[in-house]
Amino acid sequence: MVDFIRFTVNGLVGGSFYALLALGLAVIFGMLRVVNFAHGAFYMLGAFGAYMFVNEFGLDFWLALAVVPVALGLVGIVIERAFVHRLTRLDPLYNFLLTFGLTLILQDVVKARYTVSSVTIPPPYPLAADANLGLFHFPAYRVFVFVFAVAVCAGVWWLLARTRIGMVVRASTERPELTRAFGIDVSRWVTPVFGFGIGLAALSGVLAAPTRAISPLMGADLIIVVFAVVVIGGLGSIFGSVLAGFAIGLIQAWGEAYAPAIVSQVLVFLVMAGVLLWRPSGLFGREEQMA
Amino acid sequence: MTTQTDLKPARRPPVGPLLGRVARLPKAGQAGLLALGVGVAVWLPNGIYSGVAMDMLCWALFAVSVDLLLGYTGLLSFGHAAFWGTAAYSTALLAVHAHVVFPIAVLAGAGASAVLALPIGYLAVRRTGIYFAMVTLAFAQMVYYVANEWRSVTGGENGLQGVPRELFGLDLSDTYYLYYAALPIAAAGLFAAWRIVNSPFGRVLVSIRDNPARTRALGYSVRRYKITAFVLSAFLAGLGGGLFAIAHGFVSLDTVHWTTSGEAVIVVVLGGIGTLWGGVIGSVLLVWLEDRLSVAGFTLVGLITGSIFVVVVLAFRRGIWGTVRALFHRERDGRR
Known about the structure:
The complex is a heterodimer.
Chain A: H1 2-32, H2 39-56, H3 61-87, H4 92-114, E1 130-132, E2 137-139, H5 140-162, H6 164-174, H7 176-181, H8 187-208, H9 218-233, H10 238-258, H11 261-278
Antiparallel strand pairs in A: 1-2
Helix pairs in contact in A: 1-5, 1-6, 1-8, 1-9, 1-10, 2-3, 2-4, 2-8, 2-9, 3-8, 5-6, 9-10, 9-11, 10-11
Chain B: H1 3-7, H2 27-47, H3 50-70, H4 81-98, H5 102-124, H6 129-149, H7 151-154, H8 175-197, H9 200-210, H10 212-217, H11 222-248, H12 258-271, H13 277-295, H14 301-315, H15 319-329
Helix pairs in contact in B: 2-3, 2-8, 3-8, 3-11, 3-12, 3-13, 4-5, 4-6, 4-11, 5-6, 5-11, 8-11, 9-11, 12-13, 12-14, 12-15, 13-15
């Protein structure tokens, strides 16, 4: 039983990264109808950003957590203006392809500097030790990751549900034409929302840095699982995407504990297959027109 | 599926579908280009290193298979490495363990991919557009994980080594001769793709691409056509993948990696979506470029292919063949 709870906590921590990445993907998709393949690349850049802050500049990890997402969010804004923006009136597949190309470039730029081998950074002070969770001890930093991720998701939810900016974003996500008809300039919000989504990806990368091997390929492998997550949750639904992120984290952790390795890695895709059979538009997605 | 959706006009993307119309060159031009293509294909290993020529052959099949879906059915499969790789592994296993002659092994490998494509296609066509791309990508990643973990069969990270090239005692150890032994298979695959595209079946696919709702109203089972196209496409990709395994003598995890899926799409976009032969040209160019880069000792291939992708998607969406065709037809809608 204690073991089961430990696996569950582990799953919630792993799910935190899925949830944050899915959140960013869903926010960007909602506003721009763009599925951002480069999301994984920015997660990876966030992790390397944390590594640079800690190991190369000798700065504090917490400073990286504050600065790196903002800096990469600004890079996202530049990318939106320079590239993504030019293709938003075309078939959304073009932007998927564009961000795929950007991913290859970003990966190789990092590879050129750090090669393919991975690096690590230690958990930051004062969370380096294990925390006593009553039943068992658990790395304190990982507990922080979960709490922080839930807080960020709640914060974004608050932003979307309770503020005027959020209202505009939700309105233009669901009924872009109607929102324009109300005299709201939807296009003004597109670029900042893209930057915000990229910032979320970078934030999860920084968060992940002390817990995982940091390598140029870490993002793309992860983002494909996140694609399965958002297909399961329904990309149109921000709430559904976040929830599916945590759920998949749990399922993977339980699978790793109780099933052979091959099953645990394949599990998420089997869940996706089941969802496609049962509710093709995702558990929380709205029905799209199907042919 | 409510009747209401049936009656509504199809919601179309604001600036037309991903690609142009099915336009063809004048008859004389077609014959001339066909002769040129055959000539180049026959001459190829005399002009360049035969291993590179062989790769071009395999990738041409791969690209055509992706274009069959992307260009003619309007489905972007971002997981075709699953079929390329599955066929590569299956072919190699047959050749290594059962010493099957290579054409049969390649055909069986392609068959294995087609079988795999049935459930994946069945599930994937339940979504369209960008979701279809994500779903195929995810399933391909599943195949990758299986190949990685199932070490007793696939060799995991070491891959499958020592794939023989058997053909009734003929000595094919020189890739130069293997190229000519493989050329008929590749030609048959390309011909089949051309026949599919120009058949009534292919017309239905194009009509699904352009207006799925209307196609269904005409009484065609859109879903069944899409699945059939998906399976046929997987078979063609499998032919390429199987030949690739025979040509290289080993199969690595790279064959099922998502970068391979992505490269197949790059090649098609570079050559021109919905042009069939464009994919062949794109393959030849990319294989040649990657060979030049590796000869030069340049390892950051993604930097180059990624940049090509970005530039093509931003500024050259018609691709090479699409541009040539547009010159022939003097089409002037520069927005494409």
